[in-house]
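Re: duplicated header lines in exported structure tokens

Our pipeline writes sequence and tokens for each protein into one text file. With two proteins the header for the second block appears twice in some exports. Here is an export where it did not happen, for reference. First protein block:
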Amino acid sequence: MESLREFIAAELANINPTLRQKAVVLDAFSGIGSAILCLKRLGIAMKTVITVEYDPIARFVFEHHHNQQKDAIQYHSFNRFEELESSIDQVLKEHGRKY
């Protein structure tokens, strides 16, 4: 039985190249970034990660583990959903996909 990583790599290889774009990810209740780490380890290419986390310690750990300069992903961090809501149109305009 193949690993999940091998399965996902095989499925991604079969996708039409025009559909193979980097993902824009909204990580609500992001904590220390475990979900983003899982996506990275599975080989999911990400263009932008938008995080919402209230806990300052969790945000600090997230920023330490997920360094934008190291992995070339654009990170946008919000402390509260109200902050995201007030700027969601701008974030989607800059980083959202157009179909």
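Second protein block, exported in the same file:
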Amino acid sequence: MWSAARTAGTLFGAGSEGGTVRYITTQPSLTKTSIYSRAEFSSTQGGDPSYEAGVAVGGPLVQDKFGRAALGLVPQGRGAGSTASTL
């Protein structure tokens, strides 16, 4: 969820059993390109190490008219896979 601008949720959403969580994504800029990256590593005594690395890129495709954002995430560890998405 590190590419989300914010999240909003409620335990009791009308028409949704168990509540609702809404992810509001960061809008790509129409005027400048931005790159964000992060990496994490963790270890548990007696367990396997795990890590996560990711990068998000956003910016204009047509200056002042159309922008796009892309996110790539590589988690590694127990129960982890890899995923990539575009917004």
